[in-house]
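[agent] plan:
  1. take the single chain provided in the ticket
  2. run structure prediction with default settings
  3. attach structure tokens to the ticket
  4. add a short note for the reviewer (M.T.)
[agent] executing step 1
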Amino acid sequence: MSAPLSLAQHLAALAVRQPAAAALHHGGQTWTFRQLADWAAAAAPPLVALPQAIVGLAADAPALALAAVACSAADRALWPLEPNAPAERRRDWAALGGAAVAWLDALPAAAAPGRHQGFPAPVAADRPALVIGTSGSEGRPKAVVLSHANLDAAAAAANRCLPLNPGDCWLDCLPLYHVGGLAILWRCWRAGATVLLHDGFNAAAVGRDLASRGVTHLSLVPAMLAALLDRGIAPPASLRGVLVGGAALSRPLYDRAQARGWPLLPTYGMSETAAQVATRTPDAGPWREGDVGHPLPGNRLALDAAGRIRIGGPQVMRGYLTPDLAPGLGLDDGWLTSGDLGRIEPDGRLVVLGRADDMLVSGGRNVHPAEVEAGLAGCPGVDDVAVTGLPDPVWGDTVVALVVGPVSDATLRDWSRTHLPGAARPRRIVRLPALPRNAMGKLERQALRALAAGNPP
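[agent] step 2 finished; step 3 output follows
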């Protein structure tokens, strides 16, 4: 196996192999691989002069894409931040990194543009390359540190699974302050493919570019897929794969997309694994809810005694951020124990059952919200649904369904009696115009509990 390369090293190699090929489209501007490598060489020196190992930057999508290139060329880890992140969360993140982070409002001015001088100097494979702030749906913020080796291994495995090749085009409409959006840069610029970058998700804009730009790959969360289907947008003939992850994919949504010809690839990953770590390919037979396929090459899956998914392999993070950049925090002998419950099928496929910390106990029975949500999602008139619990002196947890759509309470209760076991049937129904989700489409479970209790956050 070849030694891991940094993002800047891959770009430099492509600047020689295919200098005039498009590396990045955004709006009306295009950067070729030669232009992007030259820009990286010019933008790196001011960052090299910084004493800190990490550059924290809140910016829009194109600025973060260019920052990823510049930081890689300077051997500085990029920490992309949501422009409107709450001040309290930023303070928590700043405490995690301490003096190791330089917080910038913009990248320093680049030197005069010119051709990059040869191949970038080698970097230590275990050096921090990317930091992603995360808190999931619960708990205090943490920051995931990914090394050059983590990111290169993740891109190599994903590209082999998809596959992704020179000349392909990936439409990137995920936020670049989340790992899902940034990982697309590493995949494409390792393979010699083009990134078609959007300023976040807009269904109409995505539909226009799908119809006209020769897009071969696309990443979506389920809510984005639903928005495209609601607008009647059809997949173009060029589209070979649509990764769908970030939140649970329901059977009704999967069936709607399949009927319209969308080439879905249900996937599972997280910041701690440099995004995609398991993917279901079309040759895997009939799909069942939660089935995210086999682990990508080089990765290993196991379950702990509580049924939580454990992941080992080269994509697993360097560790959670500490001010001294010490590796290993959050790992057990190199293994990551996730907060997700799962099942591993005899053929090695992973089925994700939901979050371990979301488990409810109703009438002495364990009830997982994700399984109840899957059962209710098929009810006619349910546009979106989430399940949470409220304390009950008799039941332990009262199962509460928060519902979007015109379905009547009576219809939903009848459906529940037919499709759910007794302990899992909602005993309270709350109507909402929309469910609280983050930018990646994940349900905000704390907000759900507040809404169920009649206390909007």
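[agent] step 4 note for reviewer: The chain has a mean pLDDT of 91.
[agent] ticket updated
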